[in-house]
Amino acid sequence: MRTTLIAVLTALLTTPLLPVPASAAPAGAAPTGAAEAGTAEAGTQAGGRPVAEHLLRQRIDWTPCAEPDLVGLECGAYRTPRDWTAPRDSRTITIAVSRLRNDHARRSVLTNPGGPGGQGRFTPLMLQGRQRLVDSAELIGFDVRGAGASTNLTCGNLDWRLVADPRDRSRANVRRLYDAAELQARTCQTLSGDLHRVVNTEQTARDLDLLRHLLGRDLVDWVGYSSGTWLGAHYATLFPRRVGRFTLDSNADLTARFQTMFHDYFAQAFQRRFDVDYLPWVAEHHDTYGLGRTPEEVRRVYEAVRAKLAEAPLTLPDGTPLDAIAFDQTAFQTQYRKLLFPLVTPDLADLARHLGVAPPEPAETSGPHRATPGFPTLTALANRYPDAENATLFAVACNDTPFHGGRAALARDAERTGSRYPFFGYHQLLAPCAFWNRPPLTLPTPTGEGAPPLLLVQSERDPATPVEGARRSHKALKGSRMLTVLDEGDHGMYAVANNPCVDRAVEDFLVDGKLPQRDLTCPGTPMPTPSPLAATTNAPTTTTAALSPLIGFPLIGFPL
Question: What is the DSSP letter of 316?
């Protein structure tokens, strides 16, 4: 289960020790050299921002990727200005890139898995099974500034979310929570010098336009998932004449602040996914899991397990504590993709029996485990700091859009959303932004003006980027088309949901350039059947061993 579960979670789109000097390239980085054919004006780049000539003339030296998780791809790197808004600052940073090579391709598709801050060099591997796309273009992945094999940020490996149970609203615990959030903000903004100030969507979009130039393309195509839709839409706003065929899958609300998306939207949409999809599915398979014959019965067992863990955490065989916070994170991650339901629910059943809160009926037994196919196994991607993705997420989310309110407002908001949406409503992932010294930055709301129409892909019950926000983005983007996947709740559709209708419609656009004449719909895929390993036992070691791969999984690395 460990390999399969981590593989599926990493593919979600998808839930973050010495300092790396800004001038130091990663191992295997490309040296600067003769320029490839490009289209940027000499001495300028990124909408008239001046750029040193040697950056425009650098070459990406592609070599087979060294990491075993990137087998089949070529890797390289290039240099980009540390701060695109300060032309007199000669410092540079490294951006690590990958490609699925196609020597005959006339198009480059840039890909991004979301985050914000998710490592993206693996993303071409997610698409390599789409032969129609692979035959038509080279697929490009990249680690955004701050994360992966690019120049890294760090927050000192501090994770404020693990300090206290957010459902405990006692005065002392609330103070402890927000003290930890404030400490998180302070460490993020001190341990990497001033780099945190220039890790934001505008800077990354300009990095990508330099990449477009180095690839020798007049236009680039795009497949971005989750917060990769935010990045892609903002690139299209900054560089509308460089936009080719842009597909935005599982859409952030381009009209909203990150605070709204990570707090209010998460609370509502994850509760909906839990109530509408997960609880009824578990109840339907009561004969397998023994957790209740109705959704409300399953909910009561779930809440009883959580209450027991909040009162007295379990200790896993490797010494890791399993408390209510880790339990929440596991349940939260499970909602991203329904293929996780039969992988994680046996662990919930084992916990319920071990803690004495399950219904008395025993579950039936069944045969051997079937591996879930179709996802890359990613275990050793190359962050310089173990928390680089988390640090990058905080920097992007706290820098890109304003955060309103301090401790008192956070406490009021947690009570409001938590009481209405208890599944995850008390968790405030971006609370450190309340204490962030935000640089002057105003991102324009994308409108699609001047760019070709964009294609939006969206499931109806996406828990991380809800359909309501996607519809607002669709309305804001002039000429865009929206493909809605009906009766579906997975996060991430094209090439990862095994939905032929979606794959065909997206490739009609990406490969053949056929934009739909009007908005489209596709049916969702069926809910999974229980895994043959789903039957529970009375042995507590089954639960702890199966859950251990999830504890500490970088939730913030792929929340959007």
Answer: -
Whole-number Å distance between alpha carbons of 336 and 32: 41
Could you tell me the strand order of the sheet in which 520-523 lies?
Answer: 63-64, 74-81, 92-100, 138-142, 108-112, 220-225, 243-249, 455-459, 481-486, 520-523
**Whether residue 62 has pLDDT greater than 60:** yes
CA 338 to each of CA 102, 335, 342: distance values in angstroms, whole numbers, following the listed order: 33, 7, 8
Q: Hey, how many other C-beta atoms are within 10 angstroms of the C-beta on 366?
A: 13
Q: For residue 513, which amino acid is it?
A: G
The residue type found at 542 is T
Contact call for residues 545 and 378 (beta carbons, < 8 A): no
Token code pair at residue 7: 């593989």
Phi then psi for residue 45, to 5 deg, are -165, 160
User: pLDDT for 25-41, tens place per residue?
Assistant: 333 333 322 223 333 33
Q: Residue 430's Cα: distance from chain center in Å?
A: 15
CA 359/CA 298 separation, integer angstroms: 10
pTM of the model: 0.86
SS3 64: strand
Question: Token pair for residue 276?
Answer: 């509408």
Q: Tell me the pLDDT tens digit for each residue of 194-214.
A: 999 999 999 999 999 999 999
